[in-house]
Please model this.
Amino acid sequence: MDTLYWLINTQTLGGMVVLAAFCGALVTYIFMVRWIAQGAQEDHK
Amino acid sequence: MPRWTMAIDLDKCLGCQACTLACRMENNTPIAGPEQANLGRAILWNEVIPQVEGEYPNVTARYIPRPCMHCEDSLCTKVCPVKATYMNEEGIVLVDYDRCIGCRFCTVACPYTTRYFNWHEPYYPESLKAHLNPDVPLRPKGVVEKCTFCVHRLHKARAKAEAEGRVFQASDYVPACVQTCTGRARYFGDLDDPTSLVSQLLKSPRAFHLLDELGTHPKVFYLREG
Amino acid sequence: MSPIEQVVFAPLRKTGVRFYLLCAILGVLVLWGVYAYYLQITEGLGVTGLGRPIYWGIYLTNFVFFIGISHAGTLISAILRVTQANWRRPITRIAEAVTVFALTVGGLQILIDMGRPERVLNVILYGRYQSPFLWDFTCISIYLMSSVTYLYLPMIPDFARMRDKLTDIAPWRKWLYTVAALGWKGTHEQHRRLEKAIAILAIAIIPIAVSVHTVVSWIFGMTLQPMWHSTIFGPYFVVGAIFSGIATLFIAMAIMQKILHLEPWLTDKQFNYLGLLFLVMSVLWSYFTFSEYMTTFYGALVDEMHVANAKIFGEFNWAFWTMVLCNGIIPFVVLIRRSGRTVLGTVIVSIFVDIGMWLERFTIVAPSLTRPRLALEWAIYQPTWVEASITIGSMALFALLFVVFFKLFPSLAIWEVEEGEEIEERGRLIKKLSTQDLRAMEKA
Model:
């Protein structure tokens, strides 16, 4: 319980979660788009 | 570490609002003016709320002086997104004016409505400017402020005790409202010390907390009339 | 160019006076809102009608309202895609655009409401996760990112078409379409990957969207304020969000159908089927609202009753009863009939629902704050012209973003619509074949 409270109450830690969610989504979608774009080369092989 | 606690004896309270005034002078709360006050923008860290019950001729009235409750399970600190409002080691709930983003989540979460917002740049008439308390910082526009149990007095009392080479005692520290109270209705002290007056008063059958049912465990408690 | 391309690309190639006029009007409204915000920044939030204890008002109402509208896209593009409802195809693009711009304008409201907007980065620098605001920042940023991707992905093949077929446009636009098309060649492998990515995103975005309006409701639900502290708020807000989202989508669909001549694709079928969903959401909304007030009144807790009475009989009664009329009664009476689920019928209902849902958000935010447990007297909230101007400016900004977007990008997902038509065509063929086969078999 104390650890949990520490996790949610510590400053900056929450900000890091938001940042991680933001960056995580961004990177995932960039890779997704890249994967689609690379589909054009895939057919030539 | 002490847990600072305030007791207010409603039997002794005259409703004179000297505590409200003393608090204003002590903590440099700005002047709102009648027009802004009507819009609910007067900043009174320590408000005296009259409660009138019943209908004429069977009316009972009581006065409830209401500082910040400095709840043990405070809802304001729970919802603050940036830890601008927090409880220090001695149980006093404070606001970091340099960090507050002015989202007013704490002000809507507080069931006692003890928190205030700076709707405009704070205004002080010329006559008041010379009497501002240098120990208390002025708050900028757009941040939340509230009763601090005059925490600057605590810092000062500690420093003084240290300078005089003696051990700091709970009796060295008293907020402005407690010092001023005309009817001597207010008591202040350390709840962790079982011999302190506030600890003794809390055992009284007259002792009660405001909105006890909400489970906020306020550190300010009252002594019922009669 | 195929007929669909000719119609859909027409507004991208030629721009009339009406477009500039509309942009000018919306632009002026936005600038007026910016001016009001400038005043608020310099003077402080005192220029609003807010005070103690009504610390939140119109801006939070707008926040909840716009974030709610953003659920249109998810419902149409994700839920209907997962259930393979083919009639969704012509409306997916419009729905996703509503989502992205509503989210943008909704997120802006939080910034507008802040006393120190320049400190917004403190939420990252010092953010603590116990605050429901952090949950909102997490969910909304993921939702925004997902929605932008979900808007973009089906546009890639359309970008390629524009790159190849729109020869008479400004060079910067040509460049924009070429870059955005990512060298799309329409090969089998590319299509497979695109479809797969869209399919994954369609499923992922549903829980994300539900989480968004749940945590929005929890801003209120997690406090102990009378009539805010309610377990029903999560689902109640999500239902209201989809409801208001469909309403806004209907208005956008009808306007675009008329102005961009999309009648062959945005047909009676779309208005009928979506109208049925609209009706379902209206009934669900009424059910949640009834449950909410029924439990409050039966339990009759003193503090809650003060708020409930303020809403139903007190100074908020105009908002409450208009809301009931707009969200519950009018949609039910009109949409229950087949003749009501037409373009005209749905648009009229949608205007009422958008008004009603805004009022619903308002009657959730304001009344609870006017009746604090401890106070000298109950407060009255009177919004000022600044709040009104910023609200109108925000709505104009939403419309402006929408209009400019569809000046630059096609209003239909062309390849998706074509695919849908192909599926329908094949279905017809198979049907035809099988009846012929049956007859042949009977003869034999």
Remarks:
- Chain A touches chain B through three residues (CB under 8 Å).
- The helical segments of chain A are 2-9, 13-37, 39-44.
- The radius of gyration of chain A is 18 Å.
- Residues 12 and 18 of chain A are 10 Å apart (CA to CA).
